[in-house]
TrEMBL record:
InterPro entries: Cellulose_deg_GH3 (IPR050288), Fn3-like (IPR026891), GH (IPR017853), Glyco_hydro_3_C (IPR002772), Glyco_hydro_3_C_sf (IPR036881), Glyco_hydro_3_N (IPR001764), Glyco_hydro_3_N_sf (IPR036962), Ig-like_fold (IPR013783). One of its GO terms (biological process) is carbohydrate metabolic process. Keywords: Hydrolase. It holds the Pfam family Glyco_hydro_3_C. It comes from Asticcacaulis benevestitus DSM 16100 = ATCC BAA-896. Transmembrane segments: none annotated. This is Fibronectin type III-like domain-containing protein. Belongs to the glycosyl hydrolase 3 family. SMART domains: Fn3_like. Residues 638-708 form the Fibronectin type III-like domain. GO terms for molecular function: hydrolase activity, hydrolyzing O-glycosyl compounds.
């Protein structure tokens, strides 16, 4: 079949359809056959046909309007016309990180990205990526706006639930897994939001001040590791400014780092409404303006009229137009979009839900379990709050997925953007009722006295608390409403109180000392209720580990306030990241703070022992061998974590860094030998003057344990000085 396609393509004078050629060769050949208008058509994307119809004809031509109206998938993120005469398909874009988000389209929601990161298992995110891509293709999409690589620098960031934690190594592996899974289904996946997009307050106007060294060792390192492990076809630039330049026209980020140093061959698309110029944005690396007209746009800068004017004025060379088109086509060829066109078809929602449930069960984190209160043994259980009789909470904004049958709870504020608030119809009450013979009673928790009365007459009380987070807003760490008071009152009434947290990130827990057990469920997805019930009953042994640090108080945060927090959008603000690369647990180590729960923390119903730590130099990095043993009586899994440390002369941002991790599942009494690699960049500092990575000669610590604050094994290794270019392949 391949030979037939190749011969036919060659016979028709269309070498870009010859699958035996490289994506680079195919893209170059296609561009050489394109008219200027066809090239310009690739670099401008559209959304919302109703708004587009009202645009002046000299800005958006009637022909383009007609094409978008005819082919844009209603309610979807965006559309870019294809070139039928050349066999180039249209690009149909869909949000977002946990599933297909299209207004009016019911699809399967994975657990939040932060939740699946807690699995510490890239196979989980890769399987999730495959599942949501399968649904996306069956829905008519070939570009997935999924692959969040931003670090949880700011714990109150409203989009932390879309990302995979606070550490570059964890993010590299977990987001990389998601992108690999998506692209395995012949779609383009999008690494976003490039870069240092670490708050939602004033996200379209905030100017982030940070040194290049700090960026390279934190936010950009996370993206670099994602890129290395997944080769995304596209990258989405962010709304914010970085060191006084808009991210989407930032030469340093787009040209110098991404395209030159890393050798990125794909294309950079804008976030919706994030473009502020035509020639400057294009020359400084932006390849595709997407989502016009949307989101307070500043002009149709990449329209045919606009770019032709820039070309005529000499501000935009034709060579750059060709490069923009080639990059887009490279992604379409390299990721299989051209050779395997999407086709709308049926979806196996049960199979999709099975994937989501497996992910949730691997991701829930048992934070506390005093007296082995869990798994449940009670004969009567009070279940209180969190709409647990109806479903489980989801995050809001462009990652919100409409479940089959719609939200289980309606009318919860906010009902407008980033709402409406969606509850996946997977009731923990119903699931626990089906999983146990205990008598189960539920009250909403709105009446604390009623909840206390139920708790008093029950053997065990389970309180569900929720924290809604969404795109465009940041959140305080305190739970809203009367939830803290509810937990405290129930815990006083019943000493066997369990708290289940459905949150987008870290929360404060002023009631923690009075509660023997806490389960962090994050946003657990389409079968979250079943996953929670299976963990609570012990049908599934918890194995999640925190991908973020939970602060003990607001006083421990690197920034007391978020500029522009809860103020009207559009206020110019700036923030200086003086903490540099000391994000999350690194900040806590640097300052000597004790968090509420440490990065990497997670309990099990069994016990594990790590031993036999043996690091060795491998190239510029390390190979680390060790063993893990299940010393308990139940089958279970844990994430063994290797950290590396250096003294102050090494110039690190903090005393230690996560070097590698491995998820290991073992039967009782079984042990396993494990080998992991520590990337040399994790041992190095970035030297801005020479654009290079440097490992200083000296003694380095290698530590092994089950969380960042529980490192039971440690040894030292002497490393020679190493220096190499930050440019890949040099």
């Amino acid at each position: 079949m391949l030979a037939c396609v190749s011969t036919s393509a060659l016979a028709q004078g269309q070498p870009w359809l010859d699958r035996s050629k490289t994506p680079e060769q195919r893209a170059a050949a296609a561009v050489s056959a394109m008219t200027l208008e066809e090239k310009l058509g690739l670099v401008m994307g559209y959304t919302d046909p109703e708004k587009l119809a009202n645009e002046p004809d000299d800005v958006v031509s009637p022909a383009i309007k007609a094409d978008v109206i005819a082919h844009h998938i209603k309610g979807s993120a965006g559309y870019i016309a294809g070139i039928p005469r050349l066999g180039i398909p249209a690009q149909w874009q869909t949000d977002a990180s946990i599933g297909v988000r299209v207004a009016g389209m019911e699809r399967t929601a994975l657990p939040s990205s932060l939740a699946t990161a807690a699995s510490f298992d890239p196979k989980i995110t890769e399987a999730g990526g495959e599942m949501i891509a399968t649904e996306a293709r069956a829905s008519g999409f070939n570009v997935f706006l999924a692959g969040g690589g931003n670090l949880a620098r700011e714990p109150r960031n409203g989009r932390n639930f879309e990302y995979t934690g606070e550490d570059p190594v964890l993010t590299g592996d977990m987001t990389g897994g998601l992108i690999r899974g998506i692209q395995s289904k012949h779609m383009v996946s999008t690494m976003k939001h490039w870069a240092v997009n670490d708050q939602e307050s004033q996200r379209t106007t905030v100017d982030v001040k940070i040194t290049k060294q700090a960026m390279r060792q934190s936010d950009l390192l996370a993206f670099e590791l994602v890129y290395d492990t997944s080769s995304p076809g596209s990258v989405m630039c962010a709304y914010n400014l970085v060191n006084a330049d808009w991210a989407c026209e930032n030469d340093y980020l787009q040209n110098q780092v991404l395209k030159q140093d890393w050798g990125f061959k794909g294309y950079i698309m804008s976030d919706w409404g994030a473009v502020h110029s035509a020639a400057k944005a294009a020359v400084n690396g932006l390849d595709q303006f997407t989502g016009y007209p949307c989101c307070g746009h500043h002009g149709a800068f990449f329209s045919e009229k606009s770019l032709k004017a820039e070309i005529a004025a000499g501000a935009l060379p034709m060579s750059r137009i060709d490069d923009m088109a080639e990059r887009i086509l490279w992604a379409l060829f390299a990721k299989g979009v051209v050779d395997d066109p999407v086709k709308v078809g049926p979806i196996d929602f049960k199979a999709s839900a099975d994937v989501a449930q497996t992910a949730a069960e691997a991701s829930l984190v048992l934070l506390k379990n005093d007296g082995n209160l869990l798994p449940l043994k009670a004969t009567s259980i009070a279940m209180i709050g969190g709409h647990a009789d109806k479903g489980v909470l989801s995050g809001g904004g462009s990652s919100g997925v409409t479940p089959i049958g719609g939200s289980a709870v309606k009318g919860v504020a906010p009902t407008t953007w980033p709402g409406p608030v969606v509850y996946q119809p997977s009731s923990p009450v119903k699931a626990l009722t089906a999983a146990t013979t205990a008598k189960i009673s539920y009250v909403s928790g709105e009446d604390i006295a009623e909840a206390v009365a139920l708790a008093k007459r029950s053997e065990v009380a389970i309180v569900f608390v929720t924290q809604f987070m969404g795109e465009g807003i940041d959140n305080p760490l305190e739970l809203d409403g009367n939830q803290d008071a509810l937990v405290a009152a129930v815990a006083r009434a019943n000493p066997k109180t369990i708290v289940v947290v459905e949150s987008g990130g870290a929360i404060l827990m002023p009631w923690l000392k009075g509660v023997p057990a806490v389960l962090e469920a994050f946003y657990p997805g389409v079968r979250g209720g079943e996953a929670i019930a299976n963990i609570l009953t012990g049908k599934v042994n918890p194995s999640g580990h925190l991908p973020i640090t939970f602060p003990a108080s607001n006083d421990q945060l690197a920034h007391a306030e978020i500029p522009g927090f809860h103020k009207p959008d559009g206020i110019p603000v700036s923030i200086t990241y003086d903490e540099g690369a000391a994000i999350g647990y690194k900040w806590y180590d640097l300052k000597g703070y004790t968090p509420l729960f440490a990065f990497g923390h997670g309990l099990s119903y069994t016990s594990f022992e790590v031993a036999d730590l043996k690091p060795a130099i491998s190239g510029k990095g390390l190979t680390v061998r060790f063993s893990v043993k299940n010393t308990g009586k139940l089958k279970g899994a844990t994430a063994a974590q290797v950290y590396v440390g250096a003294d102050k002369t090494a110039g690190w941002e903090a005393p230690k860094r996560l070097g590698a991790f491995s998820k290991v599942e073992l039967a009782p009494g079984a042990s396993q030998a494990v080998e992991v690699s520590v990337d040399p960049r994790i041992l190095a500092t970035y030297d801005e003057a020479t654009d290079s990575w440097v490992i200083k000669a000296g003694s380095y610590r290698v530590m092994l344990g089950l969380s960042s604050d529980n490192l039971s094994q440690a040894t030292s290794i002497t490393l020679p000085e190493s220096r190499w270019s930050a440019a890949h392949g040099k």
